Amino acid sequence: QVQLVESGGGLVQAGGSLRLSCAASGRTFSIYDMGWFRQAPGKEREFVARIRWSGGTLSYADSVKGRFTISKDNAKNTVYLEMNSLKPEDTAIYYCAARLFGPVEYVYWGQGTQVTVSS
Fold first, then answer.
1. Half-sphere exposure of 72 toward its Cβ, with a 13 Å CA cutoff?
2. What pLDDT, in 10s, does the model give residues 20-46?
3. Most buried pick, 46, 49, 114, 117, via CB within 10 A?
């Protein structure tokens, strides 16, 4: 089992910044990569960014490239999502998720943290 706890959401004006954190615990040695996803009201959940648990490989959704940065602190087993130049359309509940070696889907999810960007 892997447990994920997000933090860092909040209300920010357009153009502002927020940093989300996702602390992982439990069988973290079984994690292949970690992803951030978001779900806006009335919309489906969408991919935002991912990072290999071992570090190095990153990927981003086109909508956040150049504005968001995903990173990892190995000592703290924590993944971060630095969000800059926020737009109202970034408003959503943000979730972190863990994918294990083998399965292609993300099987462990955090509880989500609300990000609201006002215009």
1. 20
2. 999 999 999 999 999 999 999 999 999
3. 49
